[in-house]
Design a protein that fits this description.
Blueprint (H helix, E strand, L loop, with lengths): L2 E6 L7 H16 L3 E6 L5 H12 L5 H8 L1 H15 L5 E4 L6 E3 L8 E4 L2 H8 L3 E5 L2 E4 L5 E3 L5 H12 L3 E6 L20 E3 H9 L7 H10 L3 E5 L7 E4 L16 E5 L2 E10 L4 H11 L7 E3 L8 E9 L3 H15 L3 E5 L2 E7 L9 H11 L6 E5 L2 E7 L3 H11 L18
Helix pairs in contact: 1-4, 6-8, 7-8, 9-10, 11-12
């Protein structure tokens, strides 16, 4: 029988009925003969509500105290879930991230996992209990303070635990039936994928698909942990995220496009009139990197012959936009660029599919569909299996739908179901 790590998101445990339903699913897995370790998120919008409360108390809450506050959400849900399992006749034993042995660096709000020492989890399994671990949190290796891993990081906690325990696979339970060809909230006719490769899922997650977080997929690929994305609200088979291996009886020829992702939480900065000299771009992006800000797409124009200057545009998370602008303004006199432009009304739409490596004309079809829909493209970025464009934020739904239709990714009239979640 398998050792399974199951992760349940906030929408799955949003209320008492949801917690009872999840407990029944966990107990059902155990009674089927499997060993189960559970990772749980905070109930519903608890994390957002705690964050809002902190903002009301302080405009800039200290990172250490904010982490202490936010981790309370998972402690509530793990304890309630353990009670619900006990009511069904089995022992659920709850653990905070630190009790579970999740060791991190000391970066509050965005800590990274250094190691997992799951001794107490293994002991609970040997005792016949079902370990329930609070996701999204750990303990700093150096300061011993409680840390959080960033929004959505319960997925990462689950996969990291699966790797540390040598689990057979990791089930991620959410409020949709699996991974779809597009966000079913935006494209109701999106088709569910039975399986997708780590490589494609990495691109989808990096481009804004919310069904799995990027760090979770990176971890799974590194340690070869199969991920099974399922809904806790139905018995749908879900989607397997694994190495790119065709299932028995399935055609080996890969689909050209696996899916379309969108991200409306980015901003664009344009640095106007940068002197076209060796090392200037490096100085600019070093300042951004030293601030801990991730850059996404970068475009540099050809230098104007008359002035010897060029423009550099790049995208970054919107939450980091004003911080990046402040850093760049301090660099302006030193580098000698003319001005800065900031636009936080953009969106990114990405086409992802390993099959496009061997199929010409994908770009033409994609850009043609956007043109026919009247969507203007501001920036373009590509990889072997991805084409991303930046468009006006208001055009994102239109662009996603147009591209989805152009590549015939729909499910023949069936409507994808979103079972829960408020979208906060």
């Amino acid at each position: 029988m398998a050792l399974v790590v199951q992760k349940y998101g906030g929408s799955s445990v949003a209320d008492a009925d949801g917690i009872k339903r999840v407990a029944q699913r966990i107990v059902g897995t155990r009674k089927a003969g499997h060993s189960v370790v559970v990772v749980v998120s905070a109930m519903g919008d608890t994390t957002d509500e705690l964050r809002d409360l902190a903002d009301q108390v302080s405009p800039a809450p200290p990172g250490r105290e904010l982490d202490m506050l936010l981790t309370a959400g998972e402690r509530i849900s793990m304890a309630l879930l353990a009670m619900a399992i006990a009511n069904l006749g089995l022992e659920g034993r709850s653990f905070t991230g630190s009790q579970a042995g999740v060791i991190t660096d000391s970066a509050h709000g965005r800590a990274r996992i250094i190691d997992i020492t799951p001794g107490r989890i293994q002991a609970a399994l040997e005792d016949g209990a079902i370990p329930i671990v609070a996701g999204f949190q750990g303990v700093s290796q150096t300061t011993k303070d409680i840390t959080t891993l960033g929004r959505g990081a319960s997925d990462t906690t689950a996969v990291a635990l699966a790797a540390a325990l040598g689990a057979d696979y990791c089930e991620i339970y959410t409020d949709v039936d699996g991974v779809f060809t597009a966000d079913p909230r935006l494209v109701p006719g999106a088709r569910q994928l039975p399986r997708i490769s780590y490589e494609e899922m990495l691109e989808m997650a990096a481009c804004g698909a919310k069904v799995l977080m990027l760090r979770c997929v990176e971890y799974a690929r590194r340690y070869k942990i199969p991920i099974h994305v399922r809904s806790s609200f139905s018995n749908s088979e879900g989607t397997w995220v694994t190495d790119a291996v065709a299932a028995e009886g399935e055609a080996m020829e890969q689909a050209i496009i696996s899916g379309i992702a969108q991200d409306t939480k980015e901003a664009k900065i344009t640095i106007v009139g940068v002197p076209d000299k060796v090392g200037e771009a490096a100085r600019i992006f070093r300042v951004i990197a030293d601030s801990g800000i991730n850059i996404d797409m970068i475009v540099q124009n050809i230098s104007a012959a008359a002035t010897g200057r060029t423009d550099i545009s790049f995208t970054l998370p919107r939450d980091d936009g004003h911080h990046a602008m402040a850093k760049l303004r301090r660099l302006q006199e030193e580098v000698g660029f003319d001005s800065l432009l900031y636009d936080d009304r953009i969106g990114k739409v990405s086409l992802v599919g390993a099959g496009m490596r061997s199929h010409p004309g994908v770009s033409a079809t994609f850009f043609g569909a956007l043109a026919e829909a009247g969507v203007n493209i501001e920036m373009i970025s590509t990889s072997e299996i991805r084409i991303s464009v930046v468009v006006d934020q208001n055009d994102v739904p239109l662009a996603v739908t147009a591209a989805h239709d152009a590549f015939d990714l729909g499910d023949g009239g069936e409507t994808a179901v979103v079972y829960g979640g408020t979208g906060r």
